[in-house]
């Protein structure tokens, strides 16, 4: 039997392999809502333009309504012969309303249809990502405010560098996430043009109104070039690239929390609700959610790479390779949604062991730079020499197993006679943190100012 939809010029039907490799319904059924919405807008436009009768348009509309109810209730049927969601719905419409169904595809092709549906889907995915990221930003800001004064070691090379506040550290992630939100928002503005009416590739001879369908579907305008419109997947790539960068940020946060939760660090206790146990080691509490966020980032980046490579060799206009655009986008969206939700819970519900963090900052000689700076400021010693003197002080403290501010003044003057009593004002982690009050710095007052700015930005949304 030749194909019901396009079999007119075929003597033989497709092989089993052809039917299977061709079928996108197993995944593109996720577009059913967008497909029905776009079809309704198209039919209404066709009637308004006098291309089909109002009566046919009403029949089509009623049929699509019923199909939506069926899909909602029973799911979308998967018939490989119908290939995709577009033909599945059109075939069902024919069965329900008869010949009027055959008029719906006037002045339309599946090429502009799928491009339109998919844009609408991606647009929703962007809105969902932004909503999730806002929740994460709120959690970060709340915890940052709570810990504007909590001191921890700041690291470079994962070696204790200078003391910072936990609030400052959390707000660094707030900034990354703010850039992610901005990237998603930019992508949304750029993608919000309607391909509908581009037809197969060249436009159509029917007197359609592309502005009408564009505005009915919430697009800002119709796309400008029909060839581009049916062969463009930049909107999906923009989404995937924003998602990749976002997943990368979530992965870095997950990685830090995994390190902080390990026993030698002991900086945080993760919520039980986002941890798992071990089947053999009763003491274990494993950071699986965070580890999966870190893992998922790799997959999201893989999805992006997959679609880039699919697209890079394609001539204009539509090629069937482009049917493979959807699985990576769907996969990335679901991985990203889970990752955002998991990290929001981790940030909101982890317990910070602030004593332990402070202790780690004190024992890690995190204020060595403060000692060197003091020698420069108070004793007019060139920084390079001050660096050397401070190195000797760290070495001595290390030999004694004490913090820098636990060395005696005698110890210090033996290293360099220019060191005076007042050096101790600079050696505590509190003094160090308080002194770094430059704009954006780690001083509690600056952290509170950052919290204030972040809250104001979040309130604007
Ligand atoms: N299932 C197809 C896809 O997802 C729809 C477009 C088919 N167009 C075509 N010319 N065969 O890409």
TrEMBL record:
InterPro entries membership: Arg_succ_lyase_C, Argininosuccinate_lyase, Fumarase/histidase_N, Fumarate_lyase_CS, Fumarate_lyase_fam, Fumarate_lyase_N, L-Aspartase-like
Biological process GO annotation list? L-arginine biosynthetic process via ornithine
Q: Which UniProt keywords apply?
A: Amino-acid biosynthesis, Arginine biosynthesis, Cytoplasm, Lyase
Q: Which residues form the Fumarate lyase N-terminal domain?
A: 8-302
The subcellular location is: Cytoplasm
MF term (GO), any: argininosuccinate lyase activity
Keyword hit for Ion transport: no
Q: Which residues form the Argininosuccinate lyase C-terminal domain?
A: 365-434
> A Pfam family name for this chain?
Lyase_1
HAMAP family, alphabetically? Arg_succ_lyase
Query: Can you name this protein?
Result: Argininosuccinate lyase
Organism source for this protein?
Altererythrobacter xiamenensis
């Amino acid at each position: 039997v030749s194909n019901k939809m396009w079999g007119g010029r075929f003597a033989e039907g497709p092989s089993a392999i052809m039917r299977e490799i061709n079928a996108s319904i197993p995944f593109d059924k996720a577009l059913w809502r967008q497909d029905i919405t776009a079809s309704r807008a198209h039919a209404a436009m066709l009637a308004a333009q006098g291309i089909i009768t109002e009566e046919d348009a009403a029949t089509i509309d009623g049929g699509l309504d019923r199909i939506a109810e069926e899909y909602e209730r029973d799911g979308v049927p998967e018939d490989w012969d119908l290939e995709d969601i577009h033909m599945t719905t059109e075939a069902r419409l024919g069965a329900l309303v008869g010949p009027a169904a055959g008029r719906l595809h006037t002045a339309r092709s599946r090429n502009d249809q799928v491009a339109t549906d998919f844009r609408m889907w991606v647009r929703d995915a962007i809105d969902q990502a932004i909503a999730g990221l806002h929740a994460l930003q709120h959690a970060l800001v709340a915890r940052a405010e709570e810990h504007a004064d909590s001191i921890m070691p700041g690291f470079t090379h994962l070696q204790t560098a200078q003391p910072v506040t936990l609030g400052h550290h959390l707000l660094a992630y707030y900034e990354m996430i703010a850039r992610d939100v901005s990237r998603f928002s930019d992508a949304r503005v750029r993608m919000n043009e309607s391909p509908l009416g581009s037809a197969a590739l060249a436009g159509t001879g029917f007197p359609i109104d592309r502005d009408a369908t564009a505005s009915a579907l919430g697009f800002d305008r119709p796309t400008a070039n029909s060839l581009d419109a049916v062969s463009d997947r930049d909107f999906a790539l923009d989404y995937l690239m924003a998602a990749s960068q976002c997943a990368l940020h979530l992965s870095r946060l997950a990685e830090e929390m995994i390190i902080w939760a390990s026993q030698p660090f002991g900086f945080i206790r993760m919520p039980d609700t986002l941890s798992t146990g071990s089947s053999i080691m009763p003491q274990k509490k494993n950071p699986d959610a965070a580890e999966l966020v870190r893992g998922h980032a790799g997959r999201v980046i893989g999805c992006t790479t997959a679609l880039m490579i699919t697209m890079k060799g394609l001539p204009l206009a539509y090629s069937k390779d482009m049917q493979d655009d959807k699985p990576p986008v769907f996969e990335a969206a679901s991985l990203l949604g889970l990752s955002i939700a998991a990290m929001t819970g981790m940030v909101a519900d982890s317990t910070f062991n602030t004593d332990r963090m402070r202790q780690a900052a004190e024992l890690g000689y995190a204020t060595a730079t403060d000692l060197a700076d003091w020698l420069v400021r108070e004793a007019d010693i060139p920084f390079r020499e001050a660096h050397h003197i401070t190195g000797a002080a760290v070495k001595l403290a290390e030999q004694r197993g004490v913090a820098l501010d636990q060395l005696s003044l005698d110890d210090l003057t033996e290293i360099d006679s220019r060191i005076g009593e007042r050096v101790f004002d600079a050696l505590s982690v509190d003094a160090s943190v308080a002194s770094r009050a430059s704009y954006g710095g780690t001083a509690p007052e600056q952290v509170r100012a950052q919290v204030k700015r972040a809250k104001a930005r979040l309130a604007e949304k």
